[in-house]
Amino acid sequence: MSTRPLSCATFVAGEFRTGGAVLERHNPATGELVATAPVADAGTVEEAVRAATEAFGSWSRTSGFERGRLLRELGRVALTRLEDLATAMTLEQGKPLDEARGEVRKFAQAMRYYGEEAERVEGRTVPNESDDFLSVVVHEPVGPVAAITPWNYPVELVGWKLGGALGAGCTIVVKPSEYTPGPAHLLAECVQEAGFPPGVVNVVHGDGEVGAALAGHPDVAKVAFTGSATTGAALFRTVHGVTPLTMELGGSCPMIVSRHADLDLAVAGAARRSFRNAGQICIAINRIYVEEPVYEEFLAGLAAATTALRVGDGYADPTVDVGPVTMAEIRDRTHRHVADALDRGGVLVAGEAEADTGGLFVTPAVVAGAPASSLLMSEETFGPAVGVAPFTSMDEAVKHANAVPGGLAAYLFTERLAETVDVARSLDFGNVGVNTVDAGIINAPYGGRRESGFGLEHGPEGLHGYLQLKHVRVRHR
Ligand code: ADP
Description:
Pfam families: Aldedh (PF00171)
Protein name: Aldehyde dehydrogenase family protein
Organism: Georgenia alba
InterPro entries: Ald_DH/histidinol_DH (IPR016161), Ald_DH_C (IPR016163), Ald_DH_CS_CYS (IPR016160), Ald_DH_N (IPR016162), Aldehyde_DH_dom (IPR015590), Aldehyde_DH_Superfamily (IPR050740)
Domain Aldehyde dehydrogenase: 23-472
Bound molecules: adenosine-5'-diphosphate
Largest sheet: 7 strands, mixed
């Protein structure tokens, strides 16, 4: 199939513009050119930050009710563009079209949620020893925000930052991934249609160099980042002075399956959370620890569920479960992790050791019995491969689960209440799903521990991260 490439533009101070160097995005399923975008030069980044800085004055004083109305309107407009947004995501990133549609709906839900939260930014009064004083603690928006976002969830991850920042009264400059310029461009069109004042939302395109120029700008009051640990670490040196940063960097996520688990539920959860979006999700299951008595049965179930997944072009074929991976680097890393696990004694129970499917399609792989030291069991693959190992005591399973540098999400399957409470408490992760692999909801905080980053998205915390406190003490007598 052939579509005209989406021609993206820079969005600064309410206006779209093109010109200068252009980046190209090719469909990972077909190799076709599907989007072009202007690469922001230093002057454009400067103008975008200036627009956000100038707009901040009046936007920060716009009532929460009005900001909330506009956010909800943005959600509504995005739903009217659902097919365009979903198509751009599938063509540029590779996830099946239906999954992409779901992501647009979740964006709209986030806009509604943050639209409502914008009305609930409440301060407090604090007692003074003397009645001559009144102390109030108020929240104020931090200022213009730089949002640097990745390609795996190109609509939702922009949405969480937009919702929190705008709801708090901040303005924003978004630098989406160079692999997915289209969805961010279409969101900018939605922003314009929703009627936001010029400069409140700006979008500049380009690679890491543009991201660094934006993050390091002295007028940026906060940098919100989702992406790789390497870039996250680099950002500490990039930001100007002591500009605050929040970062979500992913990590290697474990799943523990107890002998008291509902095995059908556990198998379905494992297949879903290991391979959805071709494993390219920060909360993907990388490592599964299964209690000995149910190990073989679980493994057979997971191998069957994985083999049943249909791999292909999720734009051309609505029955596809797993699309292409987004870039060759991920295909190569997935193969490297699987090959290393097999070299170290693991056994392939589903998938292929070496892909011969061509293009960027990678058959989902399950490896049994790889040692803890293998890449698959110790590092984030961020591709469609998962390792499974047996355990004999829950303490041992928890020790394995926690034995990685990051702590974003962990999953436990058991029907035993005592086990649930003990293990959920012991897992050193920011998000724990028990008998569910859909651990995140928009109204509960989401974020990592240790090397998975810091700062929260979702929930009231996702908005409060863009606020700063001020204590005002008034002598009124
Ligand atoms: P991933 O490819 O896993 O998403 P990256 O960290 O490479 O992770 O990319 C996430 C976002 O960070 C993208 O928008 C990318 O362009 C941007 N980026 C990459 N390198 C830098 C950098 N040195 N400074 C700022 N932003 C960067």
